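Deliverable D4.2, example record:
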Amino acid sequence: MSGAPSAYARVLTTEGGASARERLGRYLDPADLARALAASDRAALVLDVAATADAHANAAAAAHALRDAGAFARVAGERLVVAASLQAIRRALESLGASAGARALVESLARAFAADRERPASLRWRDVTLDLSERAQVMGILNVTPDSFYDRGRYGGVDAARKRAAEMVALGASVIDIGGQSYAHWNPQIAAEEERDRVVPVVEALVRDRLGAAISIDTFKSSVAEAALDAGAHAINDCSGLSDARLASVVARYDAGLVVMHLKGRLNVREAEYRYDDALAEICAFLGERLDVALAAGVSADALAIDPGLEFGKEPETDLEILERFGDLRSLGYPILFAASRKSFIGRVFDRPAKELLVPSLATAAVGIVAGAGLVRVHDVEETAQLARMLGALRGSNRSKLAIAARMPGT
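Output generated by the structure prediction step:
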């Protein structure tokens, strides 16, 4: 992928259990819904349209060209809703010629259509390439804070962090994600200097240890990112969606990786309630905008990944909706990071503490991987690595490459 697209469309996936009727029904009146469902053998896509006269005129022209090409297409409020084959979208593009505004909208539909079917094969973070073609890669969580909700400060200090990182790599982690700041709302934000003091010595030690894994830093502060990248880290995992205006340019200067996460509200602050009219539409629009910012700052397209930010500015009902519709994120065309390990929305569903959430955490990870996640950020590396390997074995292209034992050990 190259360049920053002018608009981001979504393919409305149904893998999570929602039917095409449910997905399209929120955008169309009953008569148009029936017409769209009649084209149900084609992909259903939706594209947000800016609330301006020019944008609506472009959407109307795009819809007309798509209908002439044999697709279903309607402008419904501030969205262009389409059910089309890729061939119909291509015919519409040919008919639009030099009509720049309408053509850009149809081009975004074509990009979404292709991205939904062609999952990214790799991520390049500095001198490390993560192969996503055969199975999802595991990102092991290494919290070096005294107030982590799960680790409770067990890995604070360089020696404990080195030991834990080596354990996770041995168990199957290909990325170690180091966090020096807790984002739980009951913990205050710390100064950048303190976060650097926690993180940088660990990065330096792990680089010396030659772990054979990529090192990412869970921070939103450009000064912390700069110090960690200077020490040898490979990527920045930003939970704020580029709230620091300098962060993307810092990442670009080091030719490093960047994970852009959706956040509603503020880190370390819990609002009374978080409301969404259309959660996936809002999340995809936010991520699309921030991807454009990162690309404009010089971050390489093959170094970018996205994260919908489960639990960050969401109620449990929204987190579950994101899980159901997780495949919509594929339309953005970038590798997806899945991060739900032992999070409180799972604990609230089961009314259990974090230490008792291994099985449901693995279940959510399976949902994410099947829907297209290429990276899975977890506390439980060994179990998740086995899960990712098993799901990878189900892919037809991988089966011929499997080394299968003559019999099950112990029999």
